[in-house]
Amino acid sequence: MANPVIAQKAPYAVTLDPGDYYWCACGKSGKQPFCDGSHKGSEFVPTKFTVAKKDTLYLCGCKRTGNKPFCDGSHKKLD
Question: What digits encode the pLDDT tens for the residues 35-47?
Fold first, then answer.
């Protein structure tokens, strides 16, 4: 299994309106932290998540979280 590209070694703080979103799992998207289709042809697939009410969320930027799509502090363990 390939490792995703580390987009950044910190979470993305994003304020989102209610709706469905797709978090980039490959790290190659030009619209981080959201998917732009750059994963096509790879083993990675975006993670769909739903926001019920407007909220500020912290989405994983290193792509190593164990709680996709949310940051769990995994970036602190990277070199």
Answer: 999 999 999 999 9
SS3 39: coil
The letter for the amino acid at 11 is: P
73 part of a folded domain: no
Under a CB-based contact definition with an 8 Å cutoff, are residues 79 and 46 in contact? no
Q: What is the number of structural domains in the chain?
A: 1
Residue 26 in any domain: the answer is yes
Does pTM surpass 0.85? Answer: yes
Distance (Å, rounded) from C-alpha 24 to C-alpha 36? 8
CB-count exposure of residue 34 (10 Å: 0-12, 13-18, 19+): middle
Which domain range does residue 37 map to? 12-65
Residue pair 6/26 in contact (Cβ under 8 Å)? The answer is no
Q: Cβ neighbours of residue 72 under 8 Å, at least 6 residues apart?
A: 60, 65, 66
